[in-house]
Specification:
CATH class of the largest domain: Mainly Alpha
Distance between the termini: 71 Å
Largest sheet: none
CATH topology of the largest domain: Helix Hairpins
Radius of gyration: 34 Å
Strand content: under 5%
Number of strands: 0
């Protein structure tokens, strides 16, 4: 179950993340991380259900063994045979459930390890998308600055100009709305 989920998540990340787009990769990684968290919860729930089944089956085995001992005291070979069959079935079922539980525990350990790894990768990607740049990106920004460009985070003039443009647009929108209201009320 878990391997299929992991393969689907990795394929989703590969298919839907444009190369070189760290923000898109971070978004996809977050979605995959959420799906993995759900899968880990499902694995834990499955393990709890198996543990309950194992407890119940062990009790049925104890009951079947007790009944087998009582049947051995009766001089009826057919009753003894049936009791032995039931005891054998319950014993086999206990063995199967013990194996299943051991495998579920191993699978949960793998899933939790992957969850921890993906969580760390997501944290790193989120931090990287928010500000940390690669060496190649830093070199490109230095080249742009040398040519007279400015980084968005250090471009004070650009910010001021954008603020003025935004202010003009807002003023124009207010004037247009005021004109519309005047026309609507019959005033010019």
């Amino acid at each position: 179950m878990f391997e299929g989920l992991r393969a689907r998540l990795e394929k989703l990340l590969a298919d839907h993340t444009p190369p070189g787009d760290p923000k898109a990769r971070t978004v996809q990684l977050h979605a995959a991380l959420l799906e993995l968290k759900v899968a880990v919860g499902v694995l834990r729930d499955g393990m709890v259900a198996t543990e309950r089944s194992l407890v119940a089956e062990r009790q049925q085995l104890v009951d079947a063994e007790r009944r087998g001992q009582l049947a051995a005291q009766i001089p009826d070979p057919e009753t003894v045979k049936v009791a032995e069959q039931f005891t054998g079935r319950h014993r086999e079922r206990v063995q199967v459930l013990e194996k299943k539980l051991a495998l579920q525990r191993e699978e949960l350990v793998l899933a939790e390890r992957d969850l921890e790894q993906w969580s760390a990768e997501f944290r790193n990607a989120r931090q990287g998308a928010g500000g940390a740049r690669t060496a190649a990106q830093e070199a490109a920004w230095r080249d742009l600055e040398a040519a007279g460009g400015a980084r968005p985070e250090t471009d004070v003039e650009g910010e001021l100009l954008q603020s003025q443009i935004d202010r003009r647009r807002m003023d124009e929108a207010v004037r247009a709305q005021l004109e519309h209201l005047k026309k609507k009320m019959g005033r010019e």
